[in-house]
Structure formats: C-alpha cells, structure tokens
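Record type: monomer structure entry
Structure origin: computed from sequence
Chain ID: A
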Amino acid sequence: MTLTHADITDLTALRRRLHRHPEISGAECETAHRITDALGPCAPDHLLTGLGGHGIAAIYEGTAPGPTVLFRCELDALPIAETGAAPHRSTVPGTGHLCGHDGHMAIVVGLARLLARARPARGRTVLLFQPAEETGAGAAAVIADPRFAAIAPDYAFALHNLPGLPLGHVSLIPGPVACASRGMEITLAGTSAHASQPETGTSPMMALARLMPALTALSHGTVAARGFTLATVTHARMGAPAFGIAPGEAVLHATLRTLTDDGMAALVAQAETLVAEAARAQGLGAEIAWHDIFAHCENHPEATRRIADALDALGLPHHGRGLPMRPSEDFGQFGHTACAAMLFLGAGVDHPALHNPDYDFPDDLIPLGARIFHRIARDLLG
C-alpha cells in the first residue's frame, strides 16, 4: 500500500501550511490544532492531546495481541528568521521551520492515512507528535506525562532529514547516532566602576578573555571516536553598552558536546574547574546554570535491524555516511525504555544545512518517509 497522488498533494500542502506558521518549543498550540485537524479523517482509535505540553498521540489498534510500536515526529520550529524566498516561507517574524520538523509531521500524517485504510493486524501503532525537541525538554515531558504509561512502546522509531546526503539516500547505523549536549551559562560577578577609575572596581574582562579560548581548548577528537568532546562558545556579554562604566558583570554561553552520556560528566567537571579558576584569579563570583540538556541518541541493534530489513524489502540502499552526527536529538530518551532507532534521509548534497536561515524541507521526502515507516509497522504488526 502506498500514498496516492492526491495524498501526496494534500500532505505537501499541509507541510507548507505548517511551514508558514511555525511555533517555537513549548508554544506549539496552533501547530497541534492543525495536526489534530489533519488526523481527523484518519480516524485513529484513540487520540491523546496535550501530552507533555502540546504533544499528540494517535493510536491505531490491532485485533490480536502484540507489541506497541511508536513512530515519533516533532512539532516545534526554531527562533531563527527565515531568509528563503519560497511562497510558503514563514509568516512569523524571527521564527522558522529550519530543521524540517514540518516535513517530519507530514510524513507521520501520511502514515496515519495508510493505517486508517488498513489497521495493524496485532498490537498497536502510536503516532507521536512531540513538542519541544529543540530544547531537549519535549521527550522527557511526554514520558513523564501520566497518560504515557498506557501507550509506552516496545519499539520506537524516528527519522530526520540530513542535508549533505544525496536526496532520498538513507543513512543508518547501530550504536550512537547523535551526541549528548548541554548549554552552559556562566555568570561572572565583580564590581562596576567609573570608566576613568577602573581600578576601583573588579572587572570580569580578564576572566572572560581567558575562558573563551580555554573552554574551546577542551575540544578533542572526531565525532566517530568514543573520546570525542566539543566545547563551542555561542554568546558573550560584558557590562553595559556605555563608555562611562567599567564592567562589573559578564555572561558567557557555551555548548558542551560528547558522543555518549558517560563522557559528559568528565567534560562538565573540566569546564566547571576552568570557570572556578578564572573567577578566583580575578576575585570574581561565578555561577553556572545548565540548559537544553540532551542525552545521546543510541540506535538499538534490533531496532536498527528492523529498519534495515524494511529498507531492503523496499529496495532502498542504506549506508552509514554522516553518522554519528554532532547535533543532538532528544529521541534518545525513548531508547531508555524501548527498543529504539532513528534513520536519516538525505535532503540533498548541496541542500542548505539544518538551522540555516534559507533551509526548507524537500517535499519529495514525504512519500518516501511514510513508505519506510509503513513497512516497518507492517513487518512488526502485520
């Protein structure tokens, strides 16, 4: 069973509507309404809304006992202004679907259309539209929702488009596929002074200048190596934008990244030591806050084999190019309790990169993604 030409036309139009009206993590209210409307004609047996925030779960029941198989996509967009010129470009200032979550949603709605025409023979299929992936908070919030326990999956699958791979090519490996990461917010506190008498204050300038290269120097190795670490300074601010005030406060943001969770604790300890030493040397106070915490994403060998078998049955070649990848993905949370794996669909060799302001999801991937997911579901549930 495949999507019809009319299906593909409808799903493309849905994707572009979602693209025109992006909403950032935690604010996906209208996006959720649009998805609920799109799922209406697909007649799921059960529909959960407000899951872990604005999440939606559409459930299709089989007639015989069997496993619960979850397919997950993301609702949220990014706080980045879109610069593309497509007719369906974002209408929301400063916000854009620049990671392809609009396309991932269209794929899963396409799967819903196929399941509506022929439900699974056994077990059940859960189609999850997850909120707040970009902040790393959404998967954990969905899992923590008391209603999730009733639909907790035995298998969980997801996909992500990947610019740099040829259009429609599939990349898939077992083991780590996306890095652990967390945002580090450092606040250095001293005392401001008149710019003519800087010696009467305690400036964070030297500590800030020391920390930026010191944190960056924690980076080591390539992402394919177990000992990979990456520290990226993403923002710095010091004092007020004025000529008469010597600064008394500074803020520094950095992202720490490791291939696996077990490497993150050591990197965090190293970074915290650098901050403490830099602050102490200048007589400053220092506070650290952590944000956007992602566990690493690991493909379970059995779930990976299930995807590979489906790809082989469909005659779709696959390889491991581009994996593991440096970006993070909170889909890894589902792998803590389910047999989980994620595949990556090529968006084109020269396609704008994820989070670039001119990125746009390739519509040609919608029927392909739905076809792959549907084959996995049929292989597991009949």
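Annotation 1: The chain is about 30% helix and 25% strand.
Annotation 2: Residues 261-281 form the longest helix (21 residues).
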